[in-house]
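It would be a great kindness if you could assist me with a short task in structural biology. A protein sequence and the structure tokens that stand for its backbone fold form the material at issue. I should value your view on which stretches of the chain appear to form regular backbone elements. The record follows directly beneath this note.
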Amino acid sequence: MPKLLFLGDIVGRPGRTFVKEHLVSLREELGADIVVANAENSAGGAGITKKIVEELTAAGIDAITLGDHVWDQKNFENEIDTLETTCRPANLPEKNPGRTHLVIEKNGFRLGIFTVLGRNYLTLKSSCPFAMADAKLEELKAQCDAVFVESHMEATSEKIALGWYLDGRAAAVVGTHTHVPTADGRVLPKGTAYLSDAGMCGPYASVLGREVEPVIESFLDGMKRRFPVAEGDVRLCGCLIEIDPSTGLARSFERIEICKGG
């Protein structure tokens, strides 16, 4: 049975370095056939660049997904169309550049991949994630053996609702964006693996990947300031999903967390 390793938001240089140092051995240890990662925070904690995409792909990541920080880095809108391993959220306006999904094939198994943005508490303009998921699943039905859906959302309720909505139709619905790994990973009754948030690949001695003190000061006085990427307690977080290619659904789910030094 094919195994998919999904990595939560890669945050800044610490996250990128840790993934590059551990991915090859982790992939071998887990027997992962396909590796997918959200990397929308990989450039200084906000956005991504073509150079970083190439760096992460060279490290062994097969597909890169993005979220509401997709356009944070200058000129990336002019680079994204050249990146065959990268897709932006599918429910952004149609005029946005970039691929709305990916199809990755390994050992004869074809996995469709797409991300939908939530519409609660996120400011980036997007269409209904539920309707877009319907449309994408229909579009990919003839192209893939299974489909992985990333729910890049702030509201846990919106993520959970999407998981139940797609149960039995997608191999997995896994959440990103909030950078905090959740404990609700499981295979839903009709066969869709679900997790509210995969967490992040980055520094956990932080506030969502940023240095603690500036964030606390901002909460205390309400003033804007820079939030540099932190460096302590770097971890790799995500999940491993075994997929039955005959049904396109999940056989098993396991949360993954690797800490520095062990």
Residues 3-259 form a domain with the Purple Acid Phosphatase; chain A, domain 2 fold (CATH 3.60.21.10). The mean pLDDT is 97. The helical segments are 12-30, 50-58, 129-140, 156-166, 212-221. The two ends are 28 Å apart (CA to CA).
